[in-house]
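Fill-in record for VC_2705 family sodium/solute symporter.
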Amino acid sequence: MKGGSQFSHQLRRYYAWYTGSFLLFIGLLAVGEYLGMSQAAIGHVFLFATILIYAGIGVMSRTSDVSEYYVAGRRVPALFNGMATAADWMSAASFIGLAGTLYFAGFEGLAFVTGWTGGFVLVALLLAPYLRKFGQYTIPDFLGERYQGNFARLVGLAAAVLASFVYLVAQIYGVGLVVSRFVSVEFEIGLFIGLAGILVCSFLGGMRAVTWTQVAQYVILIIAYLVPVVILSYKVTGIPVPQAVYGTVLSKISEREDELLVEPSEVEVRRQYGHRAADYARKIEELPLSLDAERAALIERLNEQRLENAAARDIAHTERMLRDLPRTEEEARERWARDRAEALERARPPPRHSQAHPGDTPEASDIARNNFIALVFVLMVGTAALPHILMRYYTTPGVVEARRSVFWALFFIFLLYVTAPAYAVFAKWEVYSNLVGSSLNELPNWVASWGKVGLVAIEDLNGDGILQLAELTINTDVIVLATPEIAGLPYVVAGLVAAGGLAAALSTADGLLLTISNALSHDFYYKVVNPKASTHRRLVISKSQLLVVAVVAAWVASLRPDNILFMVGLAFSIAAAAFFPALVLGIFWKRANRPGAVAGMLAGLGVTLYYVTITHGFFGGSMDNAWFGINPIAAGAFGVPLGFLTIVLVSLLTPEPPQEIQDLVDFVRYPQLPGGEGH
């Protein structure tokens, strides 16, 4: 115990020095900007300096010890495990995507805040202490022991890899987003630059390196998240406590929304988007003739421009339109349907930020409410079932520390989540009051900068040279990253936010990569294929799998399958449906057996994936196929109940588990059994 407290004291001292040094580093860069240091130089220094810090910790923490590599030697104090869990948890979705979702969805976006924080209550009550009492290294380990053998282990392994991989793609996408904007490289190149930062930590030292890196990353990401919104709060209200005063700004936004609702130019632009949607509907109805007619019209216009020696820019524009025209009737139908849906969305009045469950009809409001509830449920249950989060509770010295680390994780996560709604409100106020209604010739630089990355777009539909709200497109993933520029803050703050976004994405990506590689090397190779494998061989297999998975995930991220928040939500649905029923019933119901668990995991996961496939456009699905209007991000709302029901029914219809398995449940559930670890 004395050694543990001394180790904890040393850690506090090291990270206090580290935090002070980082704050000094920010101050020096601020002085550098004041003295004329370029924005490009600031962006490069911020990003590469922080990656070097993480790489240094990774190199210093390198290990070939199995316990250190898989579970950090089971000696991480609760406070630091809480920080590492918070960093592991607060991914690019939390840091980059959450405030953006609250910006656009307003009240509806609170489903993410409610679900994610509520999920940690389930972790503390239902899972963390019991999994730590069980010991071992991974979640499939528990499933294999509790449900007698490799069949349940392999199903759990497949689900863990799938959920973690989808989540990992979202993180690498976030890394590419940050690096491409602030180092001015192509998005695809930014992906692989960030990938190097991810690999250097997890590749060398496994969970040991990842844990201490994640603590360092939490310090950076929370400073980066709080600084801009605190400055912005002081700038707008005179009070540097955004969490307490954003309500006053929200009332001003409501007044501005009333103005935008009836402003003639805004009404006119929305009307024109309505006409555009009707035009797309007509073209879809008249296919294939409409596609042939459009192609012929563009060819004729191009010939006329060439004959009349039109400006090269106009000719190039027409050539690009001709080149981008759909090539087949099916492609045209799909693209025009998507464009029609976008035009219809812009034709609607802007949603009220503080309105709960908005809808044009009572039925639409009911669907919005059902989606809110389904999403909260999936995020709560998914939080309690994510393998890379649950693995963190194997790293504490004991069960008591596992419980305490859940408390600390909740506290450190709370700091960000209580700030995200303020971020959304202050950013929206800046856009609504200072950007909308301004001349297109005098737009701030951030519009062009983020336009180059494809995350901000402007279309002067009515040709008046003034920016209307409906003519502005901002991707949800840009709100936090662009807030310092939107608010006119020094560029060093924008660089700090980029470093924070990178820290959030890298910390979660490290944990996810480790989860996948450990599952493949430990649960598949060591437990199933070659139980006699040496320690050295197991670590070589783990590291090689880690490398392969990272490259494949980067390739998938380069396809830009959807925004960060959707991909993360899908990972939660997969984890919730596959793991939560089997884990909870495995801990609290002795009668749950192998056939029931396997059938429940397969049924829950199967219906979840099926629902996503039939409703999401990336897979060729459509919301026309939705059940009760539930969006694909909450597909787990169908998988979780089915999983519970299947496990209970199949377990009751098949023989009960043997006595040694029931004794294992007692051992995991109750303190101070002979040979057990007390609470």
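KEY FINDING: Residues 673-679 have pLDDT under 50 and may be disordered.
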